């Protein structure tokens, strides 16, 4: 199957069920909002070695945000509800409570499963914190140097889909970089998804296992162009550079649509092929067949 | 003492000896360099609860960078050489090796103390990595999907100074935010220092101890304007909003000069006072007296 | 009338009928799109001395844009259809045709009134340009160094509303700057409007006439805080700093809604009053009464 | 001659003597400084159809700037002193005087030739403006809504060099775009130069004359890849996409060094050749031979 000049491999991306939360963060203006987002969403590319996978879902205008200020909707994915219950309060305390002017709200208020956020952070107030119930939602006002940090008591948790992906392949690195950026910008514009790797893109794919004892993962040699000829190679014969766009989302449908947007944006002159990463189909319960997505 | 309309308290900032490394990171262009920096330097405001304090020291033009590409010099502070030896390889593996097109170099090549970087990460190459000695410095070429990730074998470690600070105080939050931003921008322009908090500024100052068992730190109530009257207050009587600019640097002199730049940028209309945080002078070996710095 | 702590003057903004076009500009990625927008929308604050008033209406995802690339919708306001017919081809030739990878489309395809764009620029192709009709719309392919510049033959022109405004007033400049930025960010998030002044804000309001012969306009002395006591002052007695957010939009309703968003974002601590600029109501046919808008 | 995999043509760039001014612009913080720069430096790619060629020379820290705030040094090139004397006050009045919090200073105080700036703009003050002499330099304080706009009386004018250039050529557009961006970023990092086209790069090169009467310039068909075979082609036979980086600078040496930086940054995989634009050497008095620059 072709998408313009680009061959689309007849294969599938294998994705996994994960849990996620949505945080709505607001701030006094765009400078402080960006400062908060940068601090909160760093060091969060992959749950293989980070505590969470985090990205911006979308920006909120003052008219859309809960307190009439500029805001952002962040999605945070973790292996389990427990993992999120540990990671998010830690990061919120270090990265958002510390950031001038921010407030934090629950973006999944209707979820049955909940984890503590303000319920946990409030103790930083050393007894001076105050609860506030508005309709059915509880907030905490924690005294800080610029007044009070407003943070919602709990966050809803839902089941999401993580690890949707495409792998784009090019003859030259600058062509691949340009296509990767286009794909990442296309995913960022889609609702309900994030691309958690740096700039939305991963370059160091990994396989399970290693020849070194004690290491659980190592470079995905079958996708390393410089190893062609020494190992079994899964890349198109003309490929000298490949990048992976990894996509986490609220639903199977959101991930699939984002994969389509990523393929359409990436395909083009110099992109010899687009494939996807899977583990034979036995590990992850979601299979995104590229040809089916595009038809 | 006055700095224009702003009272400068007769007090001092108390800072600590910490260890630091300098990473030189380069990338194909500004988009990917920023992606790398965002990923690497998030979740790094304070070693009280993060694994390191990280910030951009300065940007490097292609002419200044080791491989002729755009680059950045990052400073990473930790409690000890061991703490850095753990945090930096983890973050480099998750945030820089994963990021398209980056390379990582040792920015302190003459230091006697060294920690492993590529020496550790190379195992990700699963036996396909290659070492390369150029003059006296060793680099590793680790096969990844876009070719090879180049990373220096070791990083130098030096003794630095962490926790220099000023606390600016205003009647109104928007005045304080503006002054905080001016101060942060002034510090970012100084050599040899970083301001590791979000946007360069901290709003949730902490004191040692808590009324809740098991918590080691809690809000610095003496600096919370909303608690005035209920607790002993260290703020100027007219202050309704305060922010702290925390500064880590290579030397006592670099930190002191950055504090001066921060005070000069922050002082002005509506900033009633500038003070500094200390612990009575017994914990940290560096004391920065505000009046002495400004005279 | 109060909006929180801020007095809303019982007055109105006086706005004018102007003509506008909508350009859809696309580019290879966000870097080049921003380069195109910066070049095209500079030097365009006010038609009093510029050839047009220009701003970003909104950003377009690849899925929304006409050629599947990242895009932007720009609104361009002018005194007349003739003025737009002169300004827009000049600017497009200098700022967009010169910019790597861009294409330009008509964002008002259903308008009856049309001005030439590609119809005019095509002559740059020196006879090598080619027309292309897709459905009922004609495009030109002009050979340039990176291939072909695609530009639509004509642009639709509609009647819009220009000069909606609010003037916010504060005791201190940093408070006023913060409120102005909040208001500008709120307007940027509203559909169908632009705020054409730098950063969305004007600080040098003008009155008609001058004591110097030959000058048609001079500083609006009644709104200059430093002249209080020397001239009749229209500012609140506590005001030391004022800023105007000027809003142009597609319809009276779009401008009015953006003024509401601007007032709600600007009002707050330290903003003593919000007023609006008018000329007694005799020059402009649109009158936006602040109290009516907010009720 | 080769620069890595890239052929460097044995030719020269032909540049011209032009006049330039340096404006130092400061503002309250980076948001307003960027707003001022965007407004002032748009619509300024080429004096063939704009009133000036404008770009950022470098950013100034508070410690370097004349009033202790963040600043920027802008270079403005024009055909003549008279052209600058017309363009700069117009743009300053529309783009900087209107922008919240800015001030404007003369960055060439030692030049013998001077043009009026504040001397001209002061009349906007309608008689309320005030002059101020500090040492030998005169400033004007013009009352505006946020207080006073500070602007220096005159600007120095010097002889500079405009139109230095390289033309990079690639097989594929995305390779060319990446190289163009690298080159532009390299030029931006060099002192004493600007790259006035959008994002630093021009794609619609022009030749003198046209087959259409009344048009003075038309597309440089010899550099249009899609016209190969129909016209005499100056491009490398494998080139499908070319971009020009145009460089204006203070001195012949500054322009030459920036051309070297641009070539070093642009050359690489997929860039088949780098050439330069000239008019046979008879129009411009400065000739930059690529081979000589690189040796």
UniProtKB/TrEMBL annotation, chains A, B, C, D:
Top-level EC class as recorded in UniProt: transferase
Protein name from the UniProt record: Formylmethanofuran--tetrahydromethanopterin formyltransferase
Coiled-coil regions listed: none
Task performed by this protein: Catalyzes the transfer of a formyl group from 5-formyl tetrahydromethanopterin (5-formyl-H(4)MPT) to methanofuran (MFR) to produce formylmethanofuran (formyl-MFR) and tetrahydromethanopterin (H(4)MPT).
Reaction catalyzed: N-formylmethanofuran + 5,6,7,8-tetrahydromethanopterin + H(+) = N(5)-formyl-5,6,7,8-tetrahydromethanopterin + methanofuran
Localization (cell): Cytoplasm
One Pfam short name: FTR_C
Domain of life: Bacteria
Keywords: Acyltransferase, Cytoplasm, Hydrolase, One-carbon metabolism, Transferase
Family listed: Belongs to the FTR family.
Domain spans labelled Formylmethanofuran: tetrahydromethanopterin formyltransferase Ftr C-terminal: 147-293
């Amino acid at each position: 199957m072709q998408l313009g000049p680009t061959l689309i491999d007849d294969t599938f991306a294998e994705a996994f069920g994960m849990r996620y939360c949505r945080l709505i963060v607001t701030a006094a203006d765009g400078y402080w909002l960006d400062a908060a987002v940068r601090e909160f969403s760093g060091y969060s590319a992959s749950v293989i070695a980070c505590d969470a996978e985090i990205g911006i879902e979308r920006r909120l205008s003052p008219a859309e945000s809960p307190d009439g200020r500029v805001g952002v909707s962040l999605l945070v994915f973790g292996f389990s509800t427990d993992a999120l219950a540990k990671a998010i309060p830690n990061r919120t305390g270090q990265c958002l409570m510390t950031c001038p002017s921010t407030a934090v709200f629950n973006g999944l208020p209707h979820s049955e499963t909940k984890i503590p956020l303000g319920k946990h952070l409030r103790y930083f107030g050393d007894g001076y914190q105050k609860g506030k119930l508005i309709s059915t939602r509880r907030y905490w006002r924690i005294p800080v140097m610029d007044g009070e940090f407003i943070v919602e008591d709990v966050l809803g948790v839902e089941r999401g889909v993580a690890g949707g992906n495409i792998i784009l392949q090019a003859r030259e690195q600058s062509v691949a970089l340009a296509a990767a950026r286009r794909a990442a910008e296309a995913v960022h514009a889609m609702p309900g998804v994030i691309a958690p790797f740096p700039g939305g893109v991963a370059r160091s794919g990994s396989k399970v296992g290693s020849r070194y004892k004690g290491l659980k993962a190592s470079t995905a040699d079958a996708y390393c162009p410089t190893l062609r000829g020494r190992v079994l190679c899964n890349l198109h014969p003309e490929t000298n550079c490949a990048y992976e766009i990894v996509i986490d989302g609220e639903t199977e449908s959101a991930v699939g649509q984002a994969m389509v947007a990523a393929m359409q944006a990436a395909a083009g002159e110099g992109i010899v092929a687009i494939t996807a990463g899977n583990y034979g189909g036995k590990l992850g319960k979601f299979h995104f067949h590229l040809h089916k997505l595009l038809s």
